[in-house]
Design goal:
Blueprint lengths: L7 E6 L7 H11 L3 E6 L9 H8 L4 E2 L3 H5 L3 H8 L2 E7 L1 H8 L6 H8 L3 E6 L3 H5 L1 H12 L3 E2 L3 E4 L5 E5 L3 H10 L10 E6 L4 E2 L5 E2 L6 H12 L3 E6 L11 E4 L3 H11 L5 E4 L6 E3 L18 E3 L3 H6 L6 E8 L3 H11 L4 E6 L2 H4 L13 E9 L5 E10 H26 L1
Parallel strand pairs: 1-2, 1-4, 2-3, 4-5, 5-6, 9-12, 9-14, 12-13, 14-17, 17-18
Antiparallel strand pairs: 7-8, 10-11, 15-16, 18-19, 19-20
Helix pairs in contact: 1-2, 1-9, 4-6, 5-8, 10-15
């Protein structure tokens, strides 16, 4: 269950005797390394107590009209942004009908409507209710909206009858949920992703660096790996752990990053530069610690190679994606960088103080798990297309970006074949 490690999972529990199985699902997801939040409908609390799930998840349970909701009227938005996946299990016939018709009349349905996370449901009901044409139509509506349906299974039911309608077993739900994070969109491709800051030495103790945490790059590397790619992550100094299955090359300076990138470039189809590479380095690095003596210290800086431009100009260049952290004129500066460096795509975010805090109290950008991106791409080197990825967890943005990159990469390859 490595795919579930580090994932944020919301379990939505609705009214049905199978609700007790969700306690085992919660426990097993936690054991797999996922973080779990529970949302219960009012009907669900008649079958299992919220205290059970609070003890298992280590988090307060959210449901309509509880104290948590009273303190935070935007809880559905908070949970929608937090979740990598929402699993409604058990999903009653009533809740399936509400979700199919876009209802938002309780916390769970509002959360589902507001979220761009992976959405799954595990039906559980009497066999006749399951066979009803309305239930079948509602399930088709949800799957047409890209919901993943888990089950139902067949067997003895709580009502004493036997047939289809039992909630899928927890182990099978775990397997199905893990597979939801594997899109296969980049199957068989080699990617190089750069992430984090670079440190440019002043002396053996001090350095010039920047505020990049590396979170966005690591999230992109993980999303690409889940999409089937073979990923090499070239990372400057961070406190992050490389995702399972990703090859990590740790570097410190811009020059070390350049060398590592070009070592991998020969077999690379897609290059994604999220690293905040220092533009300048110290010309003469002191061999010993500089002592504090004079009132002023003058350092001479020289320009580092622009790794992104070098990759874009390479004779066997891959599909090139850049990142731009801007404090003003975000879109205009990103467009200039996209065209000036002849990139295929660029993702820009606002890191100014005014953008760091949003009206709902959510911080974005450096050292945050959340961000928002302006994504610009060009198919012919001149015509620029622009999309906006609204504020979300960086893991969610990474998945959206990887899907867009996969589509643009395939489109570019097809156009090149057609014009060859």
């Amino acid at each position: 269950m490595k795919r579930l490690k580090g994932k944020n999972i919301v379990i939505g529990i609705t009214g049905g005797i199978a609700a007790y199985k969700s306690a085992d699902l919660t426990r097993r997801l936690m054991e797999a390394g996922a973080s779990v939040r529970i949302v219960m409908t009012h009907a669900a609390t008649g079958f299992v107590t919220p205290l059970t799930f609070q003890a298992l998840s280590g988090q307060p349970v959210a449901f309509d009209n509880n104290e948590a909701d009273a303190d935070n009227g935007m809880q559905h938005i908070e949970l929608a942004r937090w979740a990598d996946a929402i699993v409604v299990t058990p999903a009653s016939a009533n809740t399936i009908a509400r979700l199919a018709h876009g209802r938002a009349d309780n916390l769970l349905t509002a959360l589902c409507l507001a979220s761009e996370a992976v959405k799954c449901f595990a039906p559980a009901m009497n066999r006749v209710m399951w066979d009803d044409l309305s239930t079948q139509a509602n399930c088709r509506t949800l799957t047409d909206k890209h919901w993943q349906q888990f089950g139902p299974a067949s067997g003895l039911q709580a009502c004493g009858e036997t047939g289809e309608g039992r909630m899928m077993e927890v182990g099978d739900i775990m397997q199905a949920l893990a597979q939801c994070f594997d899109s296969g969109e980049l199957q068989g491709l080699n990617l190089v992703v750069t992430a984090g800051p670079t440190y440019e030495a002043i002396d053996p103790v001090r350095f010039i660096g920047n505020r990049s945490s590396g979170r966005m790059g690591y999230a992109i590397a993980e999303a690409a790996q889940h999409a089937g790619a073979s990923v090499t992550l070239v990372s400057g100094p961070t406190h992050l752990t490389a995702p399972d299955g990703v090859q990590l090359t740790a570097v410190e300076s811009a020059e070390e990053m350049r060398q590592a990138v070009f070592t991998q470039l020969g077999d690379c189809q897609i290059y994604i530069s999220t690293a905040a590479v220092a533009d300048y380095r110290v010309e003469n690095i002191a061999s010993r610690k500089i002592k504090k003596s004079a009132d002023k210290l003058t350092l001479t800086l020289v320009r580092n190679d622009d790794i992104l431009s070098l990759v874009a100009a390479h004779p066997k260049r891959p599909f090139v994606v850049g990142f731009a952290a801007e404090t003003e004129n975000v879109v205009d500066n990103a467009r200039e960088k996209l065209l000036g460096k002849k990139l295929d795509m660029i993702a820009a975010n606002d890191v100014s103080d005014s953008a760091a805090e949003h009206g709902d109290g959510q911080t974005i950008g450096f050292n945050s798990e959340y961000n928002a991106l302006h994504v610009l791409s060009t198919a012919d080197g001149t015509r620029v297309e622009q999309q906006y990825f609204a504020i979300a967890r960086k893991s969610q943005l990474a998945k959206q970006l990887i899907s867009l990159i996969a589509a643009q990469y395939k489109m570019k390859n097809q156009n090149e074949k057609n014009t060859a």
